[in-house]
Amino acid sequence: MPSLILGSRSLAAWSGRTLVIGVSGSDPVTVTAGEELPKPTAKHLDQALPVLDVSAKVGATTTLPAVPGLKADKVVLVGLGTTGEGGTDALRRAAGAAVRAAGKGSVAIALPHADATELAAIAEGAASGDYTFSAHKSARDTVEDREITVFSSLEGKDSPKDVLATAETVARNVAWARDLVNTAPNLLFPQSFAEQVQQVAKASAGKLTVKVLDDKALLEGGFGGIVGVGQGSSRPPRIVTLSYAPRSKKAPHIALVGKGITFDSGGVCIKPSAGMLTMKSDMAGAAAVAATVVAAAELGLPVAVTGYLCLAENMPGDNAQRPGDVVTMRNGTTVEIIDTDAEGRMVLADGMALAAESGPDQILDVATLTGACVVALGPKIFGVMGNDDELRTAITEASDRADEPSWPLPLPVDLRSGLDSFVADLAHKGDRWGGALTAGLFLQEFAKDAKGEPIPWAHLDIAGPSFNEGGAWGHVPKGGTGVAVGTMLEHIASLA
Q: Which residues carry out catalysis (predicted)?
């Protein structure tokens, strides 16, 4: 994890490894620095840009060694847009791409920004682009943390030092979520996940409380959904409750419920082998929830936040759940199992029922839930459903601010009948049509208080963007992305 520091010297005086400068436009491409460039530097770049056919496409990079007027070893020119795209998205993605292109050594970033929001995007993007996962590498391959200097002319109420401190906190917790997702499934399972949450909470500067329900407590507590999913594995399930409460007793309270399937084989409805390779990432929702609660506590947000991490391993062991089984959920609802590879909604439903018991003002659930959502929206956009239009809109707006693209999806009433069961209160899966929507309709049944009244609830299906199987792009690395942490933090901050 890099440290973010505010530039205190001129660009000419900075003597580190790589200086990042922005370019924009198309004909011609021009330098767009966040600080005044020395005259020899500006002249050299003006001459070099057309000769090198430098691209200003967002995130495109060009490296120039030994630029006159600078002590930096090299300059990385990064595109900010060819047609005036601009905004925080371009700045975040450009900063991430530039830091990755810089390679080893110290980095300084001088990108234009008009306010604290744009500065935060630059800082978060830079830290995000620096992410690497080395936990399973040999010692000689480990990557040392480095300093990233961010130049800014902001002052006064914008408080650039505070902006960078906040960005570093957010980036550190996003990196933790990514680490959890990238960890091999033989090393991350329900118990070890719970233990890591306990360790992080203990070491955190935030005031956090952790409670773990083990398999015995889950069975005695009537959590039939998560118990059923986990009973085919030799490594039993857990529900971890991670809580942060501000000083004010009148603060709003939001509950976050995360799907934490540490490996999903599909159970007895086993997946094809090719479909299992990335199934260590089926706990990305729980990882995002854990990281969000810790970040909210460390930032001291004036909102009470409780995370429920629903952790299980879905395996086809000799006691595995079968299609046709009927289980009783935490809230007393009986559910007929249709497909053991639709296990996520079962662990989430128990978590939501537990969350509802605490009387939160809102419930958000986050899950790598359905392939149908990926088919509908592609690999970079997550779906948002809910029983409250205002909340659903608030989540999509928060995702825009965090540069985590989302799209609102409906919960059609006419699809609800597909969840009717002849033998139980609910069938846990509908037919193939509208699979993401029927999953949302199932979860909606558990966003209710003890009297059966709806609690404002939104469902974030992050199956597409939670794991990047392709190459890194912009500020997004290969592997676990940590998606939804930024969105949830933006939303929580807005409640204050």
A: 271, 345
